[in-house]
Structure formats: C-alpha cells, structure tokens
Amino acid sequence: MTRAHLDGIHAYLSGTGYHVPERVVTNDELAGLMDTSDEWIQARTGIVTRRFAAEGEGVADLAIPAVEQALRAAALTVADIDLIIFATTTPDYSAPGSGCLIQERMGFGEIGALDIRVQCSGFVYGLSIADQYIRTGTYRHILLIGAEVQSTGMNLSDDGRDVSIIFGDGAGAVILSATKEDRGILSSHLHAQGKYAKDLWLELPSSRRNPRVSHEDLDAGRQWLKMNGKEVFRHAVVRFPQVIREALDANNLSIEDIALIVPHQANLRISQEVSRRLNAPEELLYSNIHKYGNTTAASIPIALAEAIAEGKIKPGDLVIFAAFGSGFTWASALVKW
Ligand code: UT7
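Predict the joint structure of the above. Result:
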C-alpha cells in the first residue's frame, strides 16, 4: 500500500482527455451476428452501445486525440512530459510497446515509454507508478494512457456471445503533475491473485508455443478472449467494495466523505451490487457503460473525463478510482481534487 499524505511533493491530475472510435455498434447489430438480443444485453450488463475501431486502427491511433486533449487541459506541451506510461491489454504490436509508438508519433523526444498490462486494473496501477516517480522527485509531468482495441480479439459469433457483448474500444489519458498543494493522490492500493488467470484470459499468441499461433489454434478459436463470466462477477462484487474500503481506511475516511467513485466500467449490475454492499447511493458510482461497454484499461480515464465535463467533480472533492479484472487484479486510488 502507498501511504496517505499530501505533504511534500506528490502527484495531482492536471489534465484529462478521451477519444472513442467513430463506429457505434448497437446491441441489435450484435444480435445480427450471434444468438443474443438487445433486451438480454441491457438486462445483464446495462450496455446499449459500444464503439469498435475501424479496420487498421490501433490503440496508439485512439490514444493520440485523448493525449492531445489531456495536454491542452493541463496547459502543457509534449516538451513538458518526462515519462509515458501506456496501460493496455491490446497493444498495437507484441513488441515494441504502444508507448514507443506514441512517443515517436507525437514527437515526445527521447523520454522513457513504459507499457504496462494489468488489464482492467491497468489505469489504477499506472496512477500508482506515476505517483511514486513524482513523490521521489524523479519526474514532474507524466502522461498516463489507458487504451484498448478489444473488438479484434473477440469471437463475434454464437461461441463468443458471453464475452463479445461486453467489451468495446476506446482511449483515455491523464497528465500527472508534481505539486506541494493540498490536492492529489492520497493513496493507492494494488492487488492480484494469479490463481484465477484463466478465468479471463487471452491465450494466444503465446511464447510457450512455436509457432506462437498455428493454423490449428486459429481453427480451434484459441486466439479469442475467454471469460468465465460468473466467476469474474462473483469475485468483482467482493473485491470492488474491499479495495474501496481499504482506501477509505488508509485515509481515516468514510464513504459519506466521498464525492464520486469512478469505477472500472465492468458491468452495470456489478456497480449496482457494489453500491449496495457499500451502503452508498447508486449515483455515487459514476457510470457510462451504456455508451461504451467495458473498455478495459481505458474505462476509468474515459469515465473520469466525462464526469469532469459533466461538472461532477469540483475542487476539494474526494474521488476514488477502483478496478477489478483479469489476473485477477484489483486496485484503488483515493484522490483529492
Ligand atoms: O472487466 C472485468 C471483467 N468482466 C466482467 O466484469 C464481467 C463479469 N461477468 C458478467 O458481467 C456476466 O457474467 C455476463 C454479462 C458476462 C453474463 O451474465 P450472466 O448473468 O452471468 O449470464 P450467464 O453466463 O449465467 O448465462 C445465463 C444464460 C445462459 O443460458 P442458460 O445456460 O441459462 O440456458 C447463457 O448461455 O444466458 C446465456 N447467454 C446469453 N444469452 C443471450 C450467455 N451470453 C448470452 C448472450 N445473449 N450474449
């Protein structure tokens, strides 16, 4: 756990931005590809539409407009940024990381570019990493991106219907900047439990195999994202409240002190159950899953940018980010705005 304090140098979020691909995919469109329905998807997930990237569009493409917005909001330029952290489960290439692509394409110079995985928890893990660099005085401004193109890794047929109705594509970005003021990241809390790795996983391409993907593998559908939805759900509704309480306890706060929780947008039913278990009103957990589905590492920064644009976060507010996903991994961060 990162300890809570805002004395000395620490990180605050100086700018946010997001970008989603143009193509809107409705539940009815999916129902034309697989045995599902708008009614089933809305009732089980709260999702009405999601966005799919255009052919050839990768996470670096989606991230660039989000980064431009975040830089503008922070009144900074690429020359001010000291490090890029790129959280994605769906990088443009297996190697090198998408952070390197952004660095080159946006003209960041020779600053470090670090890709992190951590799936749905990637953004919160990235926030924690950035905060450590800033607290040690190593860097002043860090760009953190969460971006995903899930649509190309999903089986859009009957066999994949339990997974592919949930996920969507998109990108969010924040700038973390050094400050000594009474605002910023109070604490962050990171967890993982690898024994559940195969309950939400994308097996191939795998370095355990040569070739990493064979024609037989493709025929068997081993290149698609697989999820044991019930097991993920069961753990998510326990881990979200647990890691939110951990953040509250670390800062001697109670749920009534919190202005907004921006959770990973996993499934509307998960958020509703989490608010029930926290004895909190449903509106305390920000939700935009109806528009974008579950965008993995991108969901929190997209939701944050929208919550700010809607005036839901004011200076001085206490905000919690919380995530749960593949790994299993889960994490939270408490931020004073
Ligand atoms: O980002 C974090 C990672 N992911 C999550 O947080 C997702 C967590 N899990 C979930 O959100 C839910 O488990 C799902 C939305 C994926 C599935 O909802 P569920 O209520 O757990 O459904 P289920 O898997 O228990 O399936 C219920 C029924 C089954 O039929 P039978 O066996 O009752 O006849 C499924 O075959 O619904 C069927 N089903 C579908 N029907 C229509 C499964 N997928 C679909 C579908 N459309 N797309």
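Residues 76 and 133 are 19 Å apart (CA to CA).
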